[in-house]
Amino acid sequence: MANYNVSTQEALANINRGMRVTKAASSLAATKDVDLFLVKGGAVAVLGLVGVCDGAMQASATTLLIKCTPEAGTGTALSIASGSLSEKAANTMLTLPAAVGSALVISTGEAAALLTSAPVYYVQPCKIQMTVGAATNTQTVTWHIWYVPMSEGAYIEAA
């Protein structure tokens, strides 16, 4: 199989899956809203979102949910709170649920997670946030989002 340079690999990935943005090491140290991504310049279609636990989670009942919060108006929950992340292994993954209004999905292992079961979300300019609930944790989560612009000039950047 051919070995492509990095720019070709990125171009092929953008065509196949959408443009990817990464938000590294999002803290779970406080029960609050944490800005992950900013949707700017117009609407985008969110094709996928995955969080990867950067280390083994401590024994605390930490839960997470994902939501969109606009500058004005009412926000939208993309998930409700996950189950507890207590003692989950490093590289455990979190993904959006297959049904709107369901719990954030925690992978059953550290090797793979289903990325495409979630619906495609049409997202207006907003902050995409995680809410750390129930209990804090000393670990962090790295998040990846895939999207395509729906409005000319629309994009997502890490917060």
Sketch the major β-sheet: 6 strands, antiparallel
What portion of residues belong to β-strands? 35-45%
Please report the distance between the alpha carbons of the first and last residues: 37 Å
Regions with pLDDT < 50 over 5+ consecutive residues? none
Output the structural class.
mainly beta
* Rg, alpha carbons: 16 Å
Total number of beta strands: 11
Shape descriptor reads globular
Structure overview:
- This protein is mostly beta strands.
- 8% of the residues lie in helices and 42% in strands.
- The chain has one helix and eleven strands, in the order αβββββββββββ.
- Strands 1, 3, 6, 7, 8 and 10 form a six-stranded antiparallel sheet that branches. A five-stranded antiparallel sheet has the order 5-4-9-2-11, with no helix packed on it.
- A hairpin with a 6-residue loop joins strand 4 (63-69) and strand 5.
- The longest helix is centred in the first third of the chain and has 12 residues, at 6-17.
- It starts with 5 loop residues before the first helix and ends with a strand.
Give a brief rundown of this model.
This protein has 159 residues and is mainly beta. The chain has one helix spanning 6-17; strands spanning 19-27, 33-40, 44-53, 63-69, 76-77, 93-95, 105-106, 121-123, 126-133, 140-149, 155-158.
Keywords:
mainly beta, globular, 159 residues, 5-stranded antiparallel sheet, 6-stranded antiparallel sheet, single chain
